Amino acid sequence: MLNYFKELFNFRQMLVSIVRRDLRSRYKGSFLGFLWTFINPLLQLLVYSIVFPYLLRIEQENYAMFLFVALLPWIFFTTSVQGATTSIVGGANLVKKVYFPRLILPISVVGTNLMNYIYGLVITFAALLLTGVHLTFNVLWLPVVLLIEFIFILGLSVILSALYVKFRDLEHIVGVVTFVWFYLTPIVFPITIFPERIASIISLNPMVPIINSFRNVLLNGVQPDWSALLYSLLIGIVLLIVGIFIFRKSEKTFAEDL
Amino acid sequence: MSDQTVISIKNVSKTFKIYRDKPLTMKEKLLKLRSNEYSNFYALNNVSLDIKKGETVGLIGHNGCGKSTLLKLITKILYPDTGEIEVNGRISSLIELGAGFHPDFTGRENIYINASISGLSRKEIDGKLDEIIRFSELGDFIENPVRTYSSGMYMRLAFSVAINVNPEILLIDEILSVGDANFQKKCFDKIEGFKNSGATIVIVAHDLGTIEKISDKVVWLSEGSIVEQGEPDRVVNLYTQHMNKKFVEQRQQEYLEDVNNKPPVESVNETELSELPEQQEEIPQFSDESRWGSKEVIITEARILNSQGENTNVISAGQSMVIEIDYKVLHSQKEYIFGIGFYTADKMLVYGNNTQIGKLKLQSIKDTGTVKFKVNQCNLLTGSYKLNVAIVNGEHLALDFIKYYMDFTVVSNDKAVGVLSIDHSWDIG
């Protein structure tokens, strides 16, 4: 087991190379190039901040930022999970012909999307300042919150990427589930719009404390709700351990199953 | 060379499941829309092999014998069903060149991606970068996107990265056909350099000459098992002999099937038909350029028989063979001369002989009969040849002369070049 992680560590440059390649190749050849990393969330922000307050009449102070600080971590979550699910199959060319720790593939997808989120923070901070949000020192908790989200996403990604090799329905199932999941997470609306009883059920969703924490540190200038966040972290760690277990069990036949 | 074993393969077996139609989605699994039936393919069957540090081992065998599977098991792309494989040392495989290359990135950027997939750290790559670029002979092209490269340049870059990783164990699979002759020589020199610096090399190639030249030991695999291993020349010779034998048997099989399936011979022209109604099916048809003569005596059929006495068009060198000519006399002559000739595929005469040279004066022969030219030992080298058969009269005027009656193939274990095996030995004074 120790050797397994040692080898993974030895291949860290591969992870870096692949993340860089994917980040740079995504917009290579397009006119606006890397700017698309910013344009996509900006457009989403624009659409959501028109649709929800004006059409659905949600009463929320600074709704655009309320949405934005939650939307970016959510995009990080869905694009990672969806991308990682197909990562082994998508990397079939490499898997069938070259040896490397297979875990690199799902990790690199999550890593690429993490970098995209971090670039998105440039816009987030600019927009926060422009809209007059008062930043406090609690912003410094952001890396911790991000790390917890990263662990949770990674755990899920590792499991799904391994299972998808044998079970190709998963891609569509993941699509449907994340779509529903979006509305079970307080992203476009505060959790307070749910009745008490439903709200407590929804709080079991480990993405709820994570999204709330992003709002707390970036928008409300307070500390995260640590006990709730700890719950997400625990789930994340359990998923990651289970994920690595499943992954190790199935990775030996990846080259044959593809 | 030390006795330390770097690759230890113990009783390894590997089976692949060949699904007729694999169910992949839930619907298919539940409704059994696709059958889950599969058959097992035994790619490797209880193979044990120790490869020592500094050894160069060549794997040979026909397609599907398990060579590539064995290499993939050594690199841990595949895992064995049973048995154990232990590898000590960094492996670089020249199995897949250019893994992870991105067409839009420059050669230099791709070096980083490609080398990192072999597990190199950034610092190690930095250190080897200049050598990789120099070796690839790409010069300033290294700053251009890889998509602008010719396929030769692409392979040169990929090969350059793979070979400059400085592995302790190098696995090579059928890729020494990279680039031009010059570059190939460089690659061989580099591989030679590896050998001398004590690296272990496992190589798969169909070019037996290459294998024999660079290996210390050759392993012959067939149907997933090791048939023979040991000194390169001995194993390669055994293998070529086996392959030659198989080739001859297979060709023989095809030839017999071909003959049996042949539709009845095409009709002959009118005049001949009236003259020999009962014989018409047996006369081979040839155009005027390849068959001429007065036809007072005709060749009704000719054939080559192998050492088993079977009709054939393929001969193993060193074995006996018989060429038979069936004839029919329509108008008797004062004298008959039967002849045969062998030509190369490009129509150069290799050998010719006739009954007159053989001091036979044939003045009266049966009306129909068969003349046999018996060869105790066919000394032709590997190649494709053409057979001439002819009957002429005492004045050497053609009665029936058939040029290139049929093609036949000779398979020889003699690696000499040319057309003939000559019994010889060297004596260096």
Number of helices, counting only DSSP H or I runs of 4 residues or more of chain A: 13
**Poorly predicted residue ranges of chain A:** none
Rg over C-alpha atoms of chain A, rounded to the nearest angstrom: 19 Å
Order of helices and strands of chain A: HHHHHHHHHHHHH
Q: In which range does the helix fraction of chain A lie?
A: over 70%
Could you state the oligomeric state of the chains shown? Answer: heterodimer
Question: Quick one: CATH superfamily of the largest domain in chain B?
Answer: P-loop containing nucleotide triphosphate hydrolases
Bin the helical content of chain B. Answer: 25-40%
| Morphology of chain B | elongated
State the domain count of chain A: 1
Strand content of chain B: 25-35%
Characterize the overall form of chain A: globular
Task: Provide a descriptive summary of the structure in words.
The complex is a heterodimer of chains A (258) and B (429). With 258 residues, chain A is mainly α. Chain A has one domain. Chain A is 74% helix and 0% strand. The longest helix of chain A is centred in the middle third of the chain and has 27 residues, at 104-130. The model of chain A has no long low-confidence stretch (mean pLDDT 89). Chain B has 429 residues and is α/β, with parallel strands linked by helices. Chain B folds into two domains: 5-245, Rossmann fold; 286-411, abc- transporter (atp binding component) like domain (Coagulation Factor XIII, Chain A, domain 1). Chain B is elongated and about 95 Å long. The two termini of chain B are 33 Å apart. Mean pLDDT of chain B is 83; it is low at 264-282.
